[in-house]
Amino acid sequence: MDGFIVLDKPVGITSHDVVSAVRRTLRQKKAGHTGTLDPFATGVLPVAIGEGTKAIPFLDEGIKEYQATMVLGSVTDTQDCTGTVIRQSEWEDLAPERIVAAIQSFVGRQSQLPPMFSAVKRNGVPLYKLARKGEEVERTARDIEIYSIAVELVELPLVTFTVSCSRGTYVRALASDIGEALGCGAHLTALRRTKSGPFVIDHALRLDEFRRIAEAGDIERHVTAPGEALDHLRMLCLADEGAERVRHGMAPRLSDFTAMLENVRVGEQLRLTYGGHLLAIAESRGALWSENSKNLRLIRVFNEV
After folding, report:
1. Domain with CATH 2.30.130.10 in the chain
2. Which of 55, 3, 5 is nearest to 214 (CA)?
3. CATH architecture under which domain 63-196 falls
4. Which CATH fold topology does 233-301 show?
5. 74-100 tens-digit pLDDT
6. What tens digit of pLDDT does each residue of 153-171 get?
7. Residues assigned a catalytic role
């Protein structure tokens, strides 16, 4: 079994716990997740199995969507409800219109400082390990983009919103920054991921559903094939001889394809398929095609999936 299963991670367990459950249930040695969710967070967690693990680096998860609830007037050391409250401020005088305006001001490109309680590494050490020792170190701000924020509910001090953002955005940090902009501070009390690239919550299975379907032997219909998960990459179909070359780790030649693509860019990644199956991901080395095996570089070769 090869591909991706989208699970709805429950609150209170780690993303690694979910992968372990999948590995045990399917008796699958090769498994891994994309886009870690904090234990208090829920929602879309794509789990790769088998050859799907090879496809993880090529996924287009550039757009993520979350439903979040923050509490105004309370700051914690983790920027979420799992931490210790370190500051409290008045929020009663805040008008809903001012809150909405402050939130909307965060739409667009910006720099964001990663939280101390995060997996970002400094000198090879994850920041959260330093934070647990009570240390705070300088961090480098990252460029992110908030594509949209919709305020769903204002029941002060709670504010619920839906945010669409770029990969690498910390919604905890966003809530904290919004709180600072309002002058009262804030932290997240709930976070649910509803989209991660091509994977959406409507297709996600709860863990109990996953186990039941797997035990019934019907899980394969819920598996997204690697080639389908990578359909943002343009596809080149191999002829018989080309497929054999790729299977042996050799880059294909011009005559190894059934048809060519136009306007191939230098550095563009392409799916190489044969008979509808994904064989490899390759990178173009030249903008113009020629009868030259060096115009493509194989990045990853798959068992036919």
Report:
1. 233-301
2. 5
3. 2-Layer Sandwich (3.30)
4. 2.30.130
5. 999 999 999 999 999 999 999 999 999
6. 999 999 999 999 999 899 9
7. 38
